[in-house]
Amino acid sequence: MAVYALTGFSLVSLLSFGYLSWDWMKPSLVADVATDPMEKPLPPTFTRPPHIIFILTDDQGYHDVGYHGSDIQTPTLDRLAAEGVKLENYYIQPICTPSRSQLITGRYQIHTGLQHSIIRPRQPNCLPLDQVTLPQKLQEAGYSTHMVGKWHLGFYKKECLPTRRGFNTFLGSLTGNVDYYTYDNCDGPGVCGYDLHEGEDVAWDQSGKYSTFLYAQRVSKILASHSPKEPIFIYVAFQAVHTPLQSPKEYIYRYRSMGNVARRKYAAMVTCMDEAVKNITWALKKYGYYDNSVIVFSTDNGGQTFSGGSNWPLRGRKGTYWEGGVRGIGFVHSPLIKRKRRTSWALVHITDWYPTLVSLAGGNLSNVQGLDGYDVWPAISEGKESPRTEILHNIDPLYNHAKYGSLEDGFGIWNTAVQASIRVGEWKLLTGDPGYSDWIPPQTLTNFPGSWWNLERLTDGLRKSVWLFNITADPYERYDLSEQRPDVVRTLLTRLVHYNRTAIPVRYPAENPRAHPDFNGGAWGPWASEEDGEEWEGGREPQKSRNKKKKKCKICKLRSFFRKLNTRLMSNRI
Question: InterPro entries recorded for this chain (predicted)?
Answer without folding.
Answer: Alkaline_phosphatase_core_sf, ARSB, Sulfatase_CS, Sulfatase_N
